[in-house]
Every structure is written in structure tokens, then in C-alpha cells.
Amino acid sequence: MFEVVIGLEVHVQLNTKTKLFCSCPTSFNHTQNSNTCPTCLALPGALPVLNREVLHKATMFGTAIDATINRTSFFDRKSYFYPDSPSAYQITQLYTPVVEHGKLEIDFDDGTQKTIRINRAHIEADAGKNIHEGDISKVDLNRAGTPLLEIVSEPDMRNEDEVVRYLKKLHSIVRYLDISDANMQEGSFRVDVNVSIRPKGDEKLYTRVEIKNINSFRFIQQAIEVEVERQIDAWEDGVYEQEIFQETRLFDQLKQETRSMRGKEEAADYRYFPEPDLLKAVIDDEMFDSASDIPELPDAKRERFISEYGMSAYNASVITANLEMAKYFEKMIDEGASAKNSVTWLSVELQGRLKNSLTLETSPVDAATLGTLVKRIDDKTISGKAAKDVLDYLMQNDSDVDSVIDKLGLKQVSDTGAIEKMVDEILDANPDKVQQYRAGKEKLLGFFVGQVMKASKGSANPQAVNEVIKSKLA
Ligand code: ADP
Ligand code: MG
Ligand code: ZN
User: Fold this and answer.
1) Is residue 92 scored above 90 in pLDDT?
2) What is the pLDDT confidence band of residue 265, given thresholds at 50, 70 and 90?
3) Any idea where the domains of the chain sit in the sequence?
4) Which of 375, 384, 371 is nearest to 463 (CA)?
């Protein structure tokens, strides 16, 4: 029996306005090579200057994962040649990173948690992009010099499920901190997966294989599955030593296999040395204090929702798992909506209607509007069923809740006089059923309620209808 051992390196692109060592904008969806200057083009003589906002954001992250923050950290030069890196080296932090020895709790569905240790988080500069068009390759350096935070876990994960939970938690933390937009498709949250196997019970680490840049949770799961299978097969066939060695591999989604990309360089191959063009990075008291004052994080928010709103642990996790959802929910509460109905109307009804790549942020129904709708359900102005029609209408048309309720004539009738009249009509029309009910066939109550609701086109308050029928038939 084997145990799987996984450690992750995640490159998070920090959402600073300007690049790490120059004042070029970080928005790289502009004309190719337009957001560049002598520094990020690595022209001779241009010198880097540290963007302090990067240090601030890295410190916030360190605070969030309960890490040691090195008030003085240093930059190092990692040499390698690649066309999208004109300097032929990358500035990173090898020896003294800004953040070390943190931890992150992952949550399981049964409410238990597991701690994943984070070895370090260091600042480094991103490279540009190579664009391959037919026979020619072009280089776009708009991204060169963009700040990254590389977050390196200890090899503490044991299966794909733990990996995905770790990544989702990490993703949610950087979003809550607002230090990155963490968009996986656009490459601002890039994951390298290190995988090895070992016989169960063995404490030592075996050879790891690194799988680079997989851009969705689903592909990460698949990549781990096929790589583990490859390693186990090699072991069982007695060719583990020959076939499994430290290297970087790529995941091929179509063929569902990992393929060798390059042999893994040892640190010595990179000729690391302290970056001579930069001063040490010092976090002064002012920066430290302001960066330590971080927003409420997902775990804390979840606990607060449980205690403040009596939410189930499951619902609280759903609502706090992503920042947009938590913000949306809190705006509904501010609007005066009940927590219980807000959870359902947000996580089930609205979410179910967000199609065609609509998100909570681009939803045609905003939080204040959905909050008002829930308020009208809370105070029984409309039934839940009618509210679905209102929501359907608002997804398609620009209007407000009360106008739509009027327009569609959905106001719930709770006025007993009106309900009594409808009940009388139904009872008169069904004398045989009334007799049967009185003779003991009490389940006919549902039939009568149904008929009255139908007659009212769903606008009668079902609870009131129930009571009136019961008293009339008693
Ligand atoms: P490099 O930059 O060479 O990839 P790092 O030390 O930055 O090296 O990252 C190593 C990553 O690999 C860490 O996430 C670590 O937890 C993980 N790792 C190390 N050894 C193993 C192993 N035997 N099996 C799985 N993961 C491992
Ligand atoms: Mg690596
Ligand atoms: Zn620049």
C-alpha cells in the first residue's frame, strides 16, 4: 500500500498598480510591449527600485497565515536564460524570504480540520510572455516585472481532495485580503504540484516530480491521479529507480498523461547570489502595524455567521467560501432581510439563475434588490412561489421589487374576509368531499387548500387558508 505525498507552490500575482521594480502599470492587456521601460526591459544601466506596496501586501499575507514575518528580507538573483526574460535572470528571495513558517487550516465536510504548514512566501518578479504564431514566436514584455508572491507549502497533503481544499482556502484568503484578483484562467493564481509516493508507514520522502502550471482545480485533480498511477506502476513493475526521477512534467489534458518537460535543475544550476542592485527590504513599524490590521478572514467570518445568525456550519461555509458571496450576503442583511431566507435566496435561487458566465458581481439583480425581495417574503407580503416569479422577472428586466409585485399582481392575500369568501365557494362546489372530510377523511384538507390557492392564483397566504378551512369544517 502506498501513501501519496504532495506539496504545492502557488504563484499569486499581486494586484499592485505598478510593477515590482519600476513604475510601469501592471495591466498587461494593452498593446504588446507598451507597458515597459528600461528597467523591466533590462536595458544596461537601469536600476530596480522596490515597490513598497508589494512588501505591504506580502506582510498582510504573512499575518493571515500566522507566519514569521522577516522585518528585513533580501533579494537574490536566479540566473537562467529564457526569451521572455531579457535580463537572463529573475529577482527572487531564496535565502531570507519575507514570510516563513505559516500555516493554513483546511476544512472537511464533517467539520474536522487539518493544518497544512506553509514553508515560505517570497516576493519575485514575473517574466513576460512568449506568443507562438505558426512558425514565428513573439515576445510580449508587458507582464515582465509584475510582482508575484510564491507561496510554498510543506509536503503535508495526502490526496487530491486535500489539495483542492488547500487551494480553495488559499484562493479565498488572498481574495479576502484583496492582494490579488487570483484569476486562475488569466494566470494570476498559478499552481505547481509536487508529487511523490512512499510505502505506507515510511517516514522518509521519496523522489518528487513537479507538474507545472495547471490552470483549473479539475485538471489539478486529474494530473495528480495520473501521475500517482505512473509512479505506482513503475514501483510495482520494479522500474521505479529508472523511471521516476526529479524532473518537471507537463499535464496533457487530452491524453490524460504527464510528460517530461525538462530535468529538474538543482539550486546550483541557477547560480543564485544576493542581488547586488537592490537594498535590503525593510518593513518599518508603520508598515508592519498597518499590514497587521487585516480584514476579517473566511474562517472568522464563518464562525461569526454561525453564532450571529444561527446558520448551520454547512451554510456558513458556503456563504463565506468566496468573498463576493459573503459581501453580497452582508449587503442583503444590511437591507433588513432575514439571514435564513437570505441564505436560500442567494445560494440557491439567485445562484441557480446566474447563467452564461454571469457572476454575483455582474448579476442583473444586486444585493439590495434581492435583500428587498427577501424582506417581502419575510413579512409575508408575497409567497415564496410568487417571489420566484419576481426574481425571474428581475433577471430579465430592469425594475424594482415592489413595482414588479404590483405589476404581476402577486401581493399575498392575508385578509381573512377575502379568504373566507374563496373558501366558501370551494366548499359549496364540493359537497361530497366536505361530507367525506367530516366523516373522518382528514387528508382532504390538502385538496381544499390546493383549490383555494388555485382560485387565488397563488396569492392567498397558505397558512391563513389552512386555518380558515379547518375552522369552517370543524
Ligand atoms: P523548487 O523551487 O526546486 O521546486 P521548493 O523548495 O521551492 O523547490 O519547492 C519544493 C516543493 O515541493 C514544496 O512545496 C515541497 O513541499 C514539495 N516537496 C518537497 N519534497 C517533496 C516530496 N518528496 N514529495 C512531494 N512534495 C515534495
Ligand atoms: Mg518549484
Ligand atoms: Zn518598467
Assistant:
1) yes
2) low
3) 2-290, 298-408, 416-473
4) 384
Our mutation pick for probing the ligand 1 site, out of 8, 76, 78, 152, counting the most ligand atoms within 8 A of Cβ, is 152
Residues in the chain: 474
The CA distance from 373 to 375, in Å, is: 5
Residue 264: predicted pLDDT: 62
Nearest ligand (C-alpha, residue 78):
1
pTM for this structure? 0.86
Q: CA 388, 321, 287 angle in degrees (round to 5)?
A: 130
Q: Which ligand is nearest to the CA of 206?
A: 1
Pocket test for ligand 1, best of 2, 9, 153, 231 (most atoms within 8 A of CB): 9
Residues lining ion ligand 2 (Cβ < 5 A) are 9
* Assigned C-alpha cell, 197: 509516493
Tens digit of pLDDT for each residue in 341-371?
A: 999 999 999 999 998 889 999 999 999 999 9
Q: What pLDDT, in 10s, does the model give residues 324-341?
A: 999 999 999 999 999 999
Give strand ranges (E) for 18-170. 68-69, 72-73, 76-79, 89-92, 99-107, 113-125, 129-133, 136-140, 147-153
What fold is seen in the domain 416-473? Arc Repressor Mutant, subunit A (1.10.10)
